[in-house]
Design a protein that fits this description.
The protein is mainly α and about 375 residues long. The chain contains 14 helices and 4 strands. The protein has helices spanning about 1-30, 35-50, 55-80, 85-105, 135-165, 165-195, 200-225, 225-235, 240-245, 250-275, 285-295, 300-325, 330-350, 360-365; strands spanning about 105-110, 110-115, 120, 275. The strands form 2 sheets. It has a two-stranded antiparallel sheet. The N and C termini lie far apart (about 50 Å).
Length: about 375
């Protein structure tokens, strides 16, 4: 059970990073990206290939983020001066183009070249060597600190909602805080067990949670800064910041680059979790999974994006485990039913709460 919780925590944190990059581009800036998987693909393959060439893992992951950011720069220069729907067309084409290139191109693996269709295996993964007891206790201490900060932040978030007399939001925020708090405690217990009786996946979980916490913290600072307010103004009506003398193209480009870099970092963790990557691991479906997470939680809300990822993976795990026992269908039809049902959930959400669970309707419509 603890190993399965660790697996779910890694998956949820990795795709939270992936979706946070999309939320920055779409939720805060209004940039339509249907090929967000392109950034993750470049981040994953760059990290893996460089690590096989002897580059330290940290530098490999940073290089993967930089390459993904450069892709955002290229796409931005090619499309951002055109109508916004061109961006959606170009990104989905770019995502498939990159996947097909890696599928058909020979790739450097150590001192030899192999066909990309065969995938890449046996690359270096962080924290695989069992550390000594002192280091394991230090890792448990870091996880304890991270969990404490998470619980305190959730408590303060609910308290501020109540203090600001947002009674309509207080109940929903309290429920969300309780759910996230209980999940944090469950992951904490599984993580402590995995770190003490060392499981390399528990080490990877701690690492991705630390990176997610750091990215979330800095994104929250950025979107609440004047820079973030300009992004929101561009999302609502880019003619307004233009009239105020803002370089709209530059701000859009910065959002596309930063969102791409975050997705590139997620690609590194995705590759480390899989332990072997193939081009088919990076299907366009993953982009639309990220869209589901952003829409569920509420676009333009970073905590909502993480909540969307939690709901998505909880739904995936629960339906994969219990649905075959309830619905008498074969495996293929069960898979189709699961997709159909989450579509039904999204349609219901759009009717009941179109801004998402934590989104603010008045902000996204300028109060209209």
């Amino acid at each position: 059970m603890s190993e399965y919780l660790i697996f779910l925590a890694i998956s949820t944190a990795t795709f939270s990073l992936f979706a946070l990059g999309l939320n920055l581009q779409w939720g805060f800036t209004g940039l339509i990206s249907f090929g967000h998987i392109a950034f993750m693909t470049l981040g994953a393959y760059t990290t893996v290939i460089l690590s096989l060439q002897g580059v330290p893992l940290f530098l490999s992951a940073v290089a993967g983020a930089i390459v993904a950011a450069l892709l955002g720069l290229v796409i931005g220069f090619a499309t951002l001066r055109l109508r916004e729907d061109y961006l959606g067309i170009v990104t989905i084409g770019t995502g498939e183009l990159i996947r097909l290139v890696f599928n058909n191109q020979d790739l450097p693996v150590g001192d030899r070249w192999i066909s990309g269709a065969f995938g890449i295996q046996s690359y270096v993964i962080p924290l695989t060597t069992t550390p000594n007891l002192l280091f394991r206790l230090l890792m448990i201490g870091v996880l304890t600190l991270l969990t404490s900060i998470t619980l305190f932040s959730l408590w303060r978030w609910v308290k501020n909602t109540r203090k600001n007399n947002h009674r309509a939001e207080f109940t929903s925020h309290l429920v969300v805080a309780i759910i996230l708090g209980l999940l944090s405690l469950a992951i904490y217990i599984a993580g402590v067990l995995g770190l003490y009786n060392y499981n390399p996946k528990a080490g990877l979980m701690l690492l991705v949670l630390l990176v997610l916490a750091f990215v979330f913290w800095r994104l929250e600072f950025l979107v609440q800064s004047p820079w973030g307010r300009v992004l929101k103004a561009i999302r609502e009506d880019e003619e307004v910041p233009k009239a105020l003398g803002k370089n709209v193209f530059s701000y859009k480009l910065q959002s596309l680059i930063l969102g791409g870099a975050i997705a590139g970092i997620a690609g590194a963790f995705f590759a480390w979790q899989l332990s072997a990557i193939y081009p088919d691991n990076f299907q366009p479906q993953l982009t639309f999974d990220a869209w589901i997470m952003v829409i569920l939680g509420g676009s333009g809300n970073n905590l909502g994006t993480i909540l969307g990822a939690v709901i998505y993976f909880a739904y995936d795990a629960l339906t994969r485990e219990f649905l075959p026992k309830i619905v008498p269908l074969d495996a293929e039809r069960i898979g189709a039913f699961r997709i159909m049902f989450i579509g039904f959930i999204l349609m219901s959400l759009m009717i009941w709460r179109p801004q998402g669970i934590l989104g603010k309707k008045e902000e996204l419509t300028l109060g209209k």
